[in-house]
Amino acid sequence: MSQKTLGEFEEVVLLIVAILDGDAYSVGIIAEIEERLERSVSLGAIQTVLKRLEKKGLLKSAFGEATNERGGKRKRLYEVTAEGRKIMDRTRMQRNSLWEAVPRFSFNF
Protein backbone atom coordinates (compact mmCIF):
# COMPACT_ATOMS: atom_id res chain seq x y z
CA MET A 1 0.00 0.00 0.00
CA SER A 2 1.48 3.34 -1.00
CA GLN A 3 1.09 6.24 1.38
CA LYS A 4 -0.48 9.46 0.21
CA THR A 5 1.89 12.39 0.16
CA LEU A 6 1.26 16.12 0.28
CA GLY A 7 2.84 18.85 -1.72
CA GLU A 8 3.67 22.06 0.14
CA PHE A 9 0.64 23.95 -1.19
CA GLU A 10 -1.65 20.98 -0.53
CA GLU A 11 -0.43 20.94 3.06
CA VAL A 12 -1.13 24.65 3.44
CA VAL A 13 -4.66 24.30 2.04
CA LEU A 14 -5.39 21.27 4.23
CA LEU A 15 -4.23 23.18 7.31
CA ILE A 16 -6.31 26.25 6.40
CA VAL A 17 -9.42 24.08 5.90
CA ALA A 18 -8.82 22.63 9.37
CA ILE A 19 -8.35 26.13 10.83
CA LEU A 20 -11.61 27.35 9.29
CA ASP A 21 -13.40 24.40 10.94
CA GLY A 22 -16.65 24.05 9.00
CA ASP A 23 -16.55 27.41 7.22
CA ALA A 24 -13.92 26.62 4.60
CA TYR A 25 -14.84 27.67 1.08
CA SER A 26 -12.57 28.77 -1.77
CA VAL A 27 -12.69 32.55 -1.27
CA GLY A 28 -12.40 32.22 2.51
CA ILE A 29 -9.40 29.91 2.12
CA ILE A 30 -7.71 32.46 -0.14
CA ALA A 31 -8.33 35.24 2.39
CA GLU A 32 -6.92 33.13 5.22
CA ILE A 33 -3.79 32.23 3.24
CA GLU A 34 -3.22 35.85 2.26
CA GLU A 35 -3.67 37.04 5.85
CA ARG A 36 -1.67 34.34 7.63
CA LEU A 37 1.09 33.71 5.10
CA GLU A 38 1.16 37.01 3.21
CA ARG A 39 0.97 34.93 0.05
CA SER A 40 -1.13 35.70 -3.00
CA VAL A 41 -3.21 32.83 -4.38
CA SER A 42 -5.52 32.60 -7.39
CA LEU A 43 -9.01 31.18 -7.25
CA GLY A 44 -8.08 28.66 -9.96
CA ALA A 45 -5.11 27.38 -7.93
CA ILE A 46 -7.28 26.91 -4.84
CA GLN A 47 -10.04 25.14 -6.74
CA THR A 48 -7.52 22.79 -8.37
CA VAL A 49 -5.96 21.84 -5.02
CA LEU A 50 -9.33 21.44 -3.32
CA LYS A 51 -10.48 19.03 -6.05
CA ARG A 52 -7.19 17.11 -5.84
CA LEU A 53 -7.40 16.81 -2.04
CA GLU A 54 -11.00 15.67 -2.29
CA LYS A 55 -10.04 13.08 -4.94
CA LYS A 56 -7.29 11.81 -2.57
CA GLY A 57 -9.95 11.40 0.13
CA LEU A 58 -8.39 14.02 2.41
CA LEU A 59 -11.25 16.52 2.14
CA LYS A 60 -14.97 16.23 1.63
CA SER A 61 -17.36 18.92 0.51
CA ALA A 62 -21.02 19.80 0.54
CA PHE A 63 -23.05 22.81 -0.45
CA GLY A 64 -24.03 25.20 2.34
CA GLU A 65 -27.25 27.16 2.51
CA ALA A 66 -28.07 29.86 -0.03
CA THR A 67 -27.39 33.37 1.26
CA ASN A 68 -28.65 36.81 0.22
CA GLU A 69 -25.11 38.23 0.28
CA ARG A 70 -24.18 35.77 -2.49
CA GLY A 71 -27.30 36.44 -4.55
CA GLY A 72 -28.85 33.15 -3.50
CA LYS A 73 -25.80 31.11 -4.48
CA ARG A 74 -24.58 28.39 -2.16
CA LYS A 75 -20.97 28.00 -1.01
CA ARG A 76 -19.18 24.69 -1.43
CA LEU A 77 -17.87 24.04 2.08
CA TYR A 78 -14.89 21.76 2.72
CA GLU A 79 -13.85 19.79 5.76
CA VAL A 80 -10.96 17.50 6.58
CA THR A 81 -11.76 13.77 6.53
CA ALA A 82 -10.42 11.20 8.99
CA GLU A 83 -7.86 10.19 6.36
CA GLY A 84 -6.92 13.87 5.96
CA ARG A 85 -6.40 14.17 9.71
CA LYS A 86 -4.13 11.11 9.68
CA ILE A 87 -1.94 12.53 6.92
CA MET A 88 -1.83 15.91 8.71
CA ASP A 89 -0.63 14.18 11.89
CA ARG A 90 1.93 12.11 9.99
CA THR A 91 3.24 15.14 8.09
CA ARG A 92 3.55 17.14 11.31
CA MET A 93 5.47 14.32 13.02
CA GLN A 94 7.80 14.01 10.03
CA ARG A 95 8.51 17.74 9.94
CA ASN A 96 9.08 17.92 13.70
CA SER A 97 11.44 14.94 13.50
CA LEU A 98 13.48 16.67 10.79
CA TRP A 99 13.65 19.95 12.73
CA GLU A 100 14.75 18.09 15.85
CA ALA A 101 17.52 16.36 13.86
CA VAL A 102 19.12 19.66 12.79
CA PRO A 103 22.25 20.25 14.93
CA ARG A 104 22.00 23.45 16.96
CA PHE A 105 25.31 24.73 15.61
CA SER A 106 23.88 24.67 12.05
CA PHE A 107 22.14 27.98 12.73
CA ASN A 108 24.99 29.83 14.49
CA PHE A 109 26.09 32.51 12.06
TrEMBL record:
SUPFAM superfamilies: Winged helix' DNA-binding domain. InterPro entries: Metal_resp_DNA-bind_regulator, Tscrpt_reg_PadR_N, WH-like_DNA-bd_sf, WH_DNA-bd_sf. This is PadR family transcriptional regulator. Residues 20-88 form the Transcription regulator PadR N-terminal domain. It comes from the Bacteria. It holds the Pfam family PadR.
